[in-house]
Amino acid sequence: MDDTLTRTVQPAIIVAGLAKTYGDTDKPVHAVAGIDFHVPAGSVTALLGGNGAGKTTTIAMLLGLLKPTAGSIRILDTDMLRDRHHVLPRLNFSSPYVDLPHRLTVRQNLMVFAGLYAVSNAGKRIEQLAEELNFASLLDRPAGALSAGQKTRVALAKALINQPDVLLLDEPTASLDPDTADWVRSLLEKYRAERGVTILLASHNMGEVERLCDQVLMMKQGRIVDRGTAPALVAKYGRQTLEQVFLDIARGQGKAAELSEVPL
Amino acid sequence: MSPPPTLSQDISCSLQRIFAMLRRHWYLLAGSWTRIVELIYWPAVQMIMWGFLTQFLASKTSYVAQAFGVFLAGMMLWDSMFRVQLGVAISFLEEMWSRNLGNLFVSPLRPGEFATSVLMMGLLRTLVGMIPVSIMAWIFFDFSVYGMGLALAGFFFSLVMFGWAIGIAVCGLIMRHGLGAESAAWGAMFLILPVAAVYYPVAVLPAWLQMIAWSLPPAYVFEGMRALLVDGVLRSDLLIGAFTLNALYLALGFWAFLAFFEAARRRGQLLGQGE
């Protein structure tokens, strides 16, 4: 079979019956309550939902940081619950809530991760990323001395250092000014076009999702309550923007109230 | 649900990833002279205090006069074990303090490789601190711990292994219970100090405490050290006993670390831990 076709038709991520429950059996808290979704290879998918909807929990389970209570996860045709170390070299992750060590310089941090991901010609790769992400002048500065925008760019460099096939991003533009956020989105678009990377991102920014994503998974209280392309969701809910759809679903109002009983 | 990964999958190793972690800690250590001074400072203070005490006791008791270095050697070996355990725990805590565990454990780094790297750092930090202090003891008090010859290597590595065992178990405890359990890094080893027979023989202890003492490797090492320094006898039986127990404790320490790691994964404690 043609290799390109295989990549196009086969999902890079397959999640089935994924659940995470905390707490006692008599008072369980269902952070993620049995979700199913596919992310086609080379596509960008957004996890949308309010705080506590289960987005970060889902990403943490995909990465192997959190053990699911039930369900299965396959990434790049590998069972993540059993063999995650086989596929982790082809994945990477970035989150504003997970820092790089502050006392190490940017270059030192990236050298360490280059070693962990077995990147050959690490020094050259770091210089290349620093040029692409426009932080060459910061390479020898301590990571803790960077601004939020600079930290985000360095965190993205960490996430791209191994040229991943699958990239998981938790709120990639959180706390960034509009200019820097736009710059980050352009970078992701460019990287996707060049490398055909599969991206799953959690975001609160509807403009970002509309611009970047092929598929949107709407989460609420640990469940996927709707899914589709951004324009299809806007049309389905009879709204003008994805933000209005988000608010309808979060508040259980408008068409969301009618649709809430329809199983997906 | 898929079957869980096997223990061998968790502890299989890549030297490249271990070196990457050592590089991370070396950058941190080499970039801060205060950290290096701290590694030498506390053992040096201890050594000077025990040196003067030894000088005083040597003029008052025949036991110390016969074996001048017995307290100083005891102090330095005990401190080596404590520094190894503390070095392991601090290397781990550096990741907690910098909220870096999430980055590390989504990389191909395996828990066994991570554990091995912090054990190596515990040893490295101890050598950086204790080698200068042993030279200072020779300069200030005319006592060379290296006079014990090859036996010193046996005593030292036996204590290093026990320091590793306690250190790696403490890392797991902190990972599972968060920075609230941080004090275990400093206090854990002192729990066994009374029964480690560092400065007095096991025979001094009540019978029930002697049983506990002989279940721990340090008692074998310090009894062996006294046999060498006081009687001039190398007790290989004691060294063999110490290494046998160490193998057991180190295996238990690794098992505890991996068990705590899995518990932390179940509870979602790898992502958000930090200051």
Describe the structure.
The complex is a heterodimer of chains A (about 260) and B (about 280). With about 260 residues, chain A is of the alpha/beta class. Chain A has one domain (about 5-260): P-loop containing nucleotide triphosphate hydrolases (Rossmann fold, 3-Layer(aba) Sandwich), CATH 3.40.50. Helices cover about 40% and strands about 25% of the residues of chain A. Chain A has 11 helices and 10 strands. Chain A has helices at about 5-10, 55-65, 80-85, 105-115, 120-130, 150-160, 180-195, 205-210, 230-235, 240-250, 255-260, and strands at about 10-20, 30-40, 45-50, 70-75, 80, 90-95, 165-170, 200-205, 215-220, 225-230. In chain A, the strands form 2 sheets. Chain A has a 6-stranded mixed β-sheet with strand order 6-7-8-3-9-10, sandwiched between helices. Chain A has a 4-stranded antiparallel β-sheet with strand order 2-1-4-5. In chain A, a hairpin with a 2-residue loop joins strand 4 (about 70-75) and strand 5 (about 80). The longest helix of chain A is centred in the C-terminal third of the chain and has 18 residues, at about 180-195. The radius of gyration of chain A is 19 Å and the shape is globular. By secondary structure, chain B is mostly helical. Chain B has one domain. Helices cover about 75% and strands about 0% of the residues of chain B. Chain B starts with 6 loop residues before the first helix and ends in an 8-residue tail after the last helix. The relative contact order of chain B is 0.14. The model of chain B has no long low-confidence stretch (mean pLDDT about 90). The chains are: A alpha/beta (about 260), B mainly alpha (about 280). Chains A and B meet through helix 2, strand 4, helix 3, strand 6 and helix 4 of A and helix 2, helix 6 and helix 12 of B.
